[in-house]
Design brief:
Strand order of the largest sheet: 3-4-5-6-7
Distance between the termini: 37 Å
Largest sheet: 5 strands, antiparallel
Shape: elongated
Length: 120
């Protein structure tokens, strides 16, 4: 966790209108914020489909979304490079997980669009 002064670079300042100016992101920060921007519409889509407590994460080129639906725990992994998705269901916190979906991400989102998470 960074303090505000650690978070902004030396040249950054807030102008008279309250806007942050001359703020610079590192390449890693730019990539993380880009992923966050891509993940939020998926979070919204999952929540609109009935998911609760959707938690996004990004690692090794994969998006991960943990969520609850009908009292069960699920994880959705999306590989952006290959447009491939895998969804897992966990019956307990220590379980290995059962694969619910493994295929093209576009097909999964079409399914969610028409049925929501009720197919689970």
């Amino acid at each position: 966790m960074k303090s505000f002064s650690q978070f902004i670079n030396e040249d950054a300042y807030i102008d008279s209108e309250g806007e942050l100016r001359d703020f610079e992101f590192s390449d890693q920060e730019k990539h993380e914020y880009s992923m966050y921007d891509e993940m939020m519409p998926i979070v919204d889509f999952l929540e609109d489909s009935g998911a609760k407590r959707v938690e996004p994460d990004y690692f090794n080129g994969m998006m991960k979304f943990s969520f609850k639906y009908s009292g069960e725990s699920y994880e959705l992994f999306i590989d952006l490079d290959s447009d491939y998705a895998t969804m897992m269901k966990y019956s307990s916190p220590l379980s290995k997980g059962d694969t619910i979906y493994d295929g093209p991400a576009d097909s999964l989102f079409d399914l969610l669009k028409h049925k929501g998470l009720s197919f689970l």
